[in-house]
Amino acid sequence: MEEFPKQYANNPLSMKAAGGCPFWARMGGCVKKSDVIETAKAHIWLREDGILHVEWLPGVDETLEDAQATAAACVQLGGGQRRPALADIRHMKSETRESRDFWASKERSEHFTAAALLISSGVSRVLGNFFLGVAKPGYPTKLFTSEALAIEWLRDYIL
Fold first, then answer.
1. Pairwise CA distance, residues 159 & 150, whole Å
2. What's the chain's Rg over C-alpha atoms?
3. Residue 47 near residue 28, CB atoms below 8 Å
4. 75 in a domain, yes or no?
5. What is the CATH number for 149?
6. pLDDT digits (tens, 9 = 90+) for 95-125
7. Strands, DSSP E only, in 32-157?
8. CA-CA-CA-CA dihedral for 34, 39, 40, 43, to nearest 10
């Protein structure tokens, strides 16, 4: 049985709450740890419903190189298909202008049908609003404080 990641040990959706599932329990179903790509600053996986899920680690200062590594993981997991993405930026600390420009570039529109940015109050709200107002991505992008509502919105963009 795979060990449950320590950073989720206090998460109410633990292995026990997931019915003993020996994998990472997520809203999209159980995700095998082996199906999660871990970069230096994010965990990325493809949910059972076809939505890419990017979870930025706490305190991340995202650089262009980080964004490129995360996008490469999304492309790999997406299997060459354009897909909607849920980006959990609630614990992100900052991002560079180059990173914002990278995510908003025309090339990203070739990989993503839409993006839901999961935010909380504070820094992530500022980052999300700044991204929408300044970077102007070439795919539908919306801010959410509810993961369930974000997923519901993204389902309209599954091809």
1. 17
2. 15
3. yes
4. yes
5. 3.30.750.24
6. 999 998 999 888 888 999 999 999 887 777 7
7. 37-38, 42-46, 52-56, 61-62, 83-88, 94-95, 112-118, 141-144
8. -70
Token pair in block for residue 16? 């026990």
Angle of CA points 26, 105, 154, to nearest 5°: 30
| pTM greater than 0.85 | no
Which residues lie across from 25 on neighbouring strands? 30
Count Cβ atoms below 10 Å from residue 133 Cβ, excluding itself: 8
Q: Answer yes or no: do 71 and 105 share one domain.
A: yes
Residue 24: beta bridge partners? 31
Residue 70 is given by DSSP the state: H
The DSSP secondary structure of 106-137, one letter per residue, reads HHHHTTEEEEEEE--STHHHHHHHHIIIII--
Nearest to 154 by CA among 46, 52, 13, 43: 52
Residue range of the domain that includes 126:
36-157
